Structure prediction request, 688 residues.
Amino acid sequence: FIGAGFTDIHAVLPFLNILIFVALAVAVLAVINIFKSNNRLIALALGSYVLISVLGSWAYPAILQKFVVLPNELVKETPYMEHNIAATRKAFALDTVIERDITGETTITMDDINNNRSTIKNVRLWDREPLLDTFSQLQEIRTYYDFVSIDNDRYQLNGDYRQVLLSPRELNSASLPQRTFINERLTFTHGFGLTLSPVNEVTPEGLPVLLVKDLPPSSNIESLAISRPEIYYGELASDWVTVNTKTKEFNYPSGEENVFTNYEGSGGVAIKSFFRKAMFALKFGSLKIFLSDDITFDSRIMYYRNIEERVKRVLPFLSMDSDPYMVVTKEGKLKWIYDAYTTSNRYPYAELVDDTFSALPGKRINYIKNSVKIVIDAYDGRMEFYIADPDDPIIKTYAKIFRGQFLPLEEMSEDLRAHIRYPEDLFAYQTRLYTIYHMDEAQIFYNKEDQWQIPIIASGEQPRLPTSDAAVTGGQADPIMRHMIMKLPGEKREEFILMIPFTPHGKDNLSAWMVARNDGEFYGQLMVYRFPKQKLIFGPKQITNRINQDADISRQISLWDQRGSEVIRGSLLVIPIEESLIYIQPIYLRAEGGKIPELKRVIVAYENRIAMEETLDATLEKIFSGRVAQDEEITTEAVPSAEPPVDANLSQQAKNYFDDAMEAQRRGDWTSYGREIKKLEEVLKKMK
Prediction:
């Protein structure tokens, strides 16, 4: 553990105090020695200092540690372990975690599924990377637009609380067909709009249903109407541009024509004079700024447009989260929300962990608070800073230094506050430490008898596209940290939470799961739901192994592989229902040489039951032997399929012929086997 222990307090510290007086004595003797004819006094003094230093810093502590502490380590170190436990829990806000025990014995029925309908209809069937590929193919519209990331959020859609995935459509100047000064700096200046999809809705062709799409962005849901779709400041924007010039500023394509615009905001810096024009030419190393007749005194030049760079220029003393996200406000404006942290490595006794925010290797921290939430207007770049943790002494100090710059979170508009999220980076720190520091009794902590771990499904066990969710582990595995809408045990309504499961150290069964609440008065509250130790609850890795061993699922995947399609297994989702769990995994199919993954099947696992059907509802009905209650769906126009759907009858015929061939193979009837394979081949040709 970190911090002073028994030996430090009873050996090292006393000798350090003694050395203070010895050093003073050496100084006095050195002065006296000036008046002596020899150096005996100074030699004696220095020798004593060196001897005491060696005894105090090495010999005596080593003897005390070996013969006093180690034989009775638990008793001797208990007070100091308690300091470490208390300090670490305080420094990482683990002391506020609310723990609840659940039985894990609740048998889920179809009634439970229907009573948790909001949870089921917000199950995230679209992984970030497959969805990003689909957005890119269907909605980039032009080669110079890029979808950089997928953001997780929730909105009220026609009175329904829904989880959505959205991606801003940003301009990538490097992809312009003609990269000239006028094109890059004056004409193509901004991205435009976004694409938004509910996490669980799928068209008959296996593509996402788009609630916001096209150029200009359109939606038949009033709360998603966008009135100011231009994105001048974003994750991709990095180069300077000039607006309000004599050159027409491109806004968006419309059929064979282009629509142009004039900038109406206050972003950037006004040119105003020849002197400023010359200074900007010098700053950006471009004489064309000064010589161009298109750039007038009324023009405005925008720079530091990348939101990460922009924020760090203003708040270099804060660490930034790795995932800023965009919000559509009620006024139809696009704004970024960015989480910032205060950190330190000087919190006494608290455990040190690697600083993932720093580019410096080996830097560590033992204190972190999500102290600030930053709102950035995508149109004019205006930034607002809100104190999210008023009890943090570091941000309180900065707020006194920069008076009036940091606002109370209560002053953020209700519209934006409805979209603040508990940061994944902070949650990753907390959950990693909580695997050990949930043990708050020194004896249990010392023996590590109840240590947990975060279950990780290795990429080799679960073939899938890499996602940004895997950033915690360097993209090599899936740590199963997910945002979701669900009803927590004992609560009356669904809410947006961030959730992660725990398994015992070295074991695969589930021991607990932890959530960070995001909504309203409960924002920031951490809760842990613990299963009984004597109860076996299947963990993610065990479920993955059982899915891999299921004959029907393996047969279907083999059939797709024979057709040359790429099968992509999505993230395994852990979905708490009442006091039990179900596991859900989407299966995507991408045609050979194609770039658009289509959602083709959904796997559900519950206890010893596993099923795979075309939709989540159909799979749940097969598992729980009932009918999933339907509610009014959000009306929206389906996205046209990029590839024609496969005839369902042909698919069933192919499956039947394949099953018959496998049965003939088991009987050793090779004549029948060859006949069925021939029939299968003919059907597959028709399906191409």
User: Anything to note?
Assistant: Residues 309-421 form one domain. Confidence is low (pLDDT under 50) at residues 459-478, 633-646.
